[in-house]
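Risk register update: the risk of archive-format incompatibility is retired. Evidence:
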Amino acid sequence: MSQVLVVYDIVNDRVRSKIADACLDYGLDRIQFSAFVGELSRNHQQELMLKVRHLLGDTQGTIALVPICEKDWKNRIEVSHA
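Archived output:
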């Protein structure tokens, strides 16, 4: 299992919602409107990307899944305001 960041920029609202639902189905946590983070095995990373590629179809957009090593994840800098 490794930490992953999924980000996307999709013009179609309906498709964008389906991509978000797929990320949630894989147990990822939403950290921004178009960004999710969580732990996925390599197989689940590949499955998710196949699913979102299918959901995107011919719709204009970009989806990226970025694996993040444990060391880099622990060294992240985060600013938030509740």
